[in-house]
Amino acid sequence: MINSKLRPGDRLSPKSILIWRIAQISVWLLGVVIVFSLIFYPTLGIHLFWNILIPIAPLLLVVATGLWRNICPMASTALFPRHMGLSKRKKITVEGMGKLNLISVLALFVLVPLRHAIFDLNGPATAVLILSLALIAVVMGLRYEWKSAWCSGLCPVHPVEKLYGLNNKLKLPNAHCGSCHRCVTPCPDKTPGINPLTTKKTMSNKIAGFLMVGAFPGFVWGWFQVPDYDGITTLEQLITIYKSPMLGLLVTGILFLILKKFIKEKSLITIFSAAAVSCYYWFRIPALFGFGSSPGDGTLIDLTRVVPEWSIMALVVALTLFFFWWIVLSKQRKISWVIRPAYATEGMNFGKYSYGKNKG
User: Distance (Å, rounded) from C-alpha 321 to C-alpha 270?
Assistant: First the structure.
């Protein structure tokens, strides 16, 4: 499945395609099980989604963004129309992509605080959120070419992929795109070292990039300063769930602009990336095991009577050191998230895919 000899322009063997399809279908079915559980067994569903899948995701994005891009169940859902030949395959303009990128960042900042008031404690509400996003993904897939509209545009997870996947070291094939149709430029899958500030072609791109790099670490910190509420019953609660994340966002955003005058942008991006993911686990891991600041919030299993708190903190410190080493200090290798397939050539059509010789 992982072929280090695969080069840009090479096609996957039928056996490799089969293995990847099995992996994609398996993860997609796991997603179906989670949504089913969220509706009919809310406690189980919440643990599976919010307390297992989501805590694993940031680490996976750091060490193997390409793996996630290949097996993400929402991506498989969005790309199903294209694989089946049902997409209209429209191209998105540069301005359009910039707007989608900005909307995805704003959606992330709007939806994540609502976890405290709605989604963290309400399985059916989380299921509705997932199904709504899946519907949007399918609609985008029906209209636009390959990964452009959803996977590289409107998906709220994509900005985090670009922030955390800065130093890719794992060479993987592209398990979705049979050939490259240049649906988006720059393509996040095939651009080594891509980050939220790589594209500055439009004002939307610039704003989205700044928010994800400079403001996101503070947003993450602020999110963990808010306790969970069982629904929004007062305006004060609504203000509370957004106040700390927005304040943190503002502080680190200003700090980024100041440091930018003294530190090279590329280096600063890696520092803020490592800070954001480290901040997430600094708070999330203790909470998972019952040592959080708000007892019971986001707890997977209570270990407070089983292990000493210092052991959990030692794990957190070790993980923080790992992130700064991996993202900031280790050698930056020019490896894209996935290997680009051959560019499509008009007139060479094989079923649902168009393959051609490598032109570049």
Answer: 14
Looking at the structure of the chain, the number of domains it has is 1
- pLDDT for position 294: 85
Question: What is the number of other CB atoms lying within 10 angstroms of the CB of residue 190?
Answer: 17
Cβ atoms of 112 and 245 closer than 8 Å: yes
* Domain-embedded: residue 219: yes
CA 220/CA 244 separation, integer angstroms: 10
CB 277 within 8 A of CB 160: no
Q: Are 173 and 338 in contact (CB under 8 A)?
A: yes
- Which pLDDT tens digit goes with each residue over 10-51? 677 888 889 999 999 999 999 999 999 999 999 999 999 999
For residue 347, give both structure tokens. Answer: 């007139």
Domain assignment present for 2:
no
In a domain, 7, yes or no: no
Could you give the C-alpha distances from 65 to 61, 189, 205, 219, 251, in angstroms and in order? Answer: 4, 9, 21, 22, 28
Phi–psi pair at 68, nearest 5 degrees: -65, -40
Q: What share of the chain is helix, strand, coil (3-state, %, to 5)?
A: 60, 5, 40
Q: How many CB atoms lie within 10 A of CB 357?
A: 9
For 175-196, the DSSP string reads SS-SSB---SSS-TTTSTT--T
pLDDT digits (tens, 9 = 90+) for 130-151: 999 999 999 999 999 889 899 9
- Does the residue 3 lie in any domain? no
Contact call for residues 188 and 164 (beta carbons, < 8 A): no
- Residues making up the chain, counted from first to last: 360
What value, to the nearest 5°, has the Cα angle with vertex 108 and ends 243 and 115?
60
- DSSP codes, 241-297: HHHHHHHHHHHHHHHHHHHTTTS-HHHHHHHHHHHHHHHHHHHHHHHHTT-SSSTTT
Structure tokens at 124: 């059916």
| E strand spans, the chain | 349-350, 353-354
* CA dihedral sign, ordered 74, 32, 114, 274: negative
Q: What is the pTM of this model?
A: 0.90
Q: Which domain holds residue 143?
A: 14-354
